[in-house]
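SEVERITY: medium
COMPONENT: batch folding queue
REPORTER: lab tech (J.R.)

DESCRIPTION
The queue accepted two submissions in a row. Attaching both inputs and their returned structure tokens so the on-call engineer can compare them side by side.

ATTACHMENT 1
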Amino acid sequence: MSQFILHASTQIPHQVPTCPSLLPSALDHFIAGTRTSTANTGKLFSQDDFSLGSLQLFKISTDNISAIVQTINVPVAVTALHVSSSKPTALAVGSLDGSIWAFIASRSPPRLTLSNTSTLISEKAAMTSIRFHPLHPGFLACTFYSGSVYVIRIPGHGLQGDEPKILWTLASHSPSPAWNLSWTPEPYSAPSEPAALSSGIYSVGDDGHRHTSYWTLLEFVTDPNEMTTEDLIRFHYEEGVTS
């Protein structure tokens, strides 16, 4: 029978880990977002929580101990992070006040460098999850404790424009929390044709029934620069989730 074996462990002094992620560009490294341990950990997403945060970059060494190789302190608790599957050096970090920080990971030695900061979300709610588009690292989707779901375009990554921009606000679970989401790649085109932009989003919330929602763009898009707020989003359904 297959078993998981503990390979390494570590502690972060005076910090509570909130969200970990492997670093695909350096497989012997991983990242952990944190919050200060002085706050009430039972109320992670409270608006009265003024916890500080940090990003901790770890290296798993040969003696099976995870060593911290870089610490980046941030002004609020880190509540969500994600590494792009299409660009493994791109990292997006969400926070307790809804801010988004974009980082680039160097390869040798692996280190994180801040590339962009965004405070687009005016409601100042805690971010509960953040996900890069599976093909285009210039697009992010994120869920919030307020119940809102946003699709955001960030600068760089080959996209036009120098400013981050909210493309859509999908308030599906409000006023209950939206906890997590996933982009849904769909094979709209043959391998010999331009790949259509994945445009389906599932989100999961909790109003006592654990609802899931699903949206897609009405028009297929092959160029990410053509994805704008003028494109129509269709809400497909919302139904209960039991697991």
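ATTACHMENT 2
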Amino acid sequence: MTTGDSGGLHLCTAEQGGATAGEKSDCRTRRVIELGNGSEVIYMSRFINYDESWDYLEYLNKNIPWNRPTIRVFGRSCVQPRDSCYVASEGLPQLVYSGYQPHAYSWDEFPPLKDILTAVHKALPGSRFNSLLLNRYKGGDDYVGWHADDEKLYGPTPEIASLSFGCEREFLLKKRPDKTPRGKKTSGEQPKKRSKKDGSPDKHSFVLKHGSLLVMRGYTQRDWLHSVPKRVKADSLRINLTFRLVL
């Protein structure tokens, strides 16, 4: 892991190829996918240098205190189908998901994570993150089902920056079904209205490459669900870092 100008990382800044339908390019460094109605995804396929990414994969695999907890899904207890670890700044509200409250480790316990955080902040001007949920997929049977990172401690428009190391895995997005009963009226401030005819696709698929960064912004957690499904051919290790801001 070589010391450089971006928090100790060598970052790749040139993206090959042009933007496709529904996308726009930004100085050839990233793809921006407009999902419609204030939702946006940014994807950088080579955020961290390829060789250096292998160094980080090895460090994270050996030094992070991984845990595979028991969680509750649809009222039933089950073992989470991937390993995880949680890192957060001091004084933040506790994270709880699926009935599980992970221990919050300090950034100071893992200096390379602080370097990566600095690099992510530099790549996303105006963004700020103070917590990190790490996931380790040992093979194709490890996965994460359809969900949204819409916990209240992240606020109404959370930004999630997802950095991947190791085995390429498919990342899926699909629109949430609108569960508001027809004709039902609500009081108070109204959220931004979702249009069913915005012209954007209802599903998106990304192959998250080694060293890539994917960012979800705006109303993505309100209007969309995402998952990393099982894949038989994904037979090697993948580690994913998801940076978040706890309010």
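NOTES FROM REPORTER
Residues 2-7, 13-28, 180-198 have pLDDT under 50 and may be disordered.
No errors were logged for either attachment.
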